[in-house]
Specification:
heterodimer; A: mainly beta; about 0% helix; globular; B: about 110 residues; mainly beta; 4-stranded antiparallel sheet
Chain lengths: ~110, ~110
């Protein structure tokens, strides 16, 4: 039973355009959500997070939106740059007392074309 | 300035031959995690330590063990690796207080001959 799903294995966008990566979850106990970026041969790097008490968090070109009623979150990258080409994982956690155990999605490979 | 360091980056072992993967951290974080990631799949948590307290995931095979001799180091021991254990193994750390992101190492790619 996959609690966090990224249904699009890959996404291709033109440089300068918006990239939208989507993630769905099933566990209503999740209260903290994160996006990680991973380049080949490197570990995942933390990008941005959002608590369930918010519906939007912005950091530079990256914005994460959370729709709790739909159990859906998305990552917007504007404008997209070739260096953003990587695998993006969404992850979720249930309760800070759970020592931050993360459940990951399968990842979406983003390709930004010059 | 790597803060979570995994050694080796690539490990080849023989079927059934015990292998140990290493993780060290300079962040002084309380919690250390081991994940297994197979190709095109989500990273899957195997177990974690909160300080010296070991927390195993229910579906982690008995073949996988871990040791944390001190705050900085954590080891993953695979007692009798099978072909299905070939994967990327990721170590991560977090302070363990409240909602905070985990910091990952670059992983060890394990191959089984």
């Amino acid at each position: 039973d996959q609690q966090v799903k990224q249904n699009s294995p890959s996404l291709s966008v033109q440089e300068g355009r918006i990239s939208i990566l989507n993630c769905d979850y099933t566990n209503s106990m999740f209260d903290y959500f994160l996006w990680y970026k991973k380049y080949p041969a490197e570990g995942p790097t933390f990008l941005i997070s959002i608590s369930s008490i918010k519906d939007k968090n912005e950091d530079g070109r990256f914005t994460v939106f959370l729709n709790k009623s739909a159990k859906h979150l998305s990552l917007h990258i504007v404008p997209s740059q070739p260096g953003d080409s990587a695998v993006y994982f969404c992850a979720a956690s249930a309760g800070s007392g759970n020592t931050g155990k993360l459940i990951f999605g399968q990842g979406t490979t983003l390709q930004v074309k010059p | 300035d790597a803060m979570v360091i995994q050694n080796p980056r690539y490990q080849v072992t023989q079927f059934g031959k015990p292998v140990t993967l290493s993780c060290s951290q300079t962040l002084n974080h309380n919690v250390m995690y081991w994940y297994q990631q197979k190709s095109s799949q989500a990273p899957k948590l195997l177990f974690h330590y909160y300080d010296k307290d070991f927390n195993n995931e229910a579906d982690t095979p008995d073949n996988f063990q871990s040791r944390r001799p001190n705050t900085s180091f954590c080891f993953l021991d695979i007692r009798s690796p099978g072909l299905g254990d070939a994967a990327m193994y990721l170590c991560a750390t977090t302070e363990g207080r409240g909602n905070q992101p985990q910091h990952f190492g670059d992983g060890t790619r394990l191959s089984i001959l």
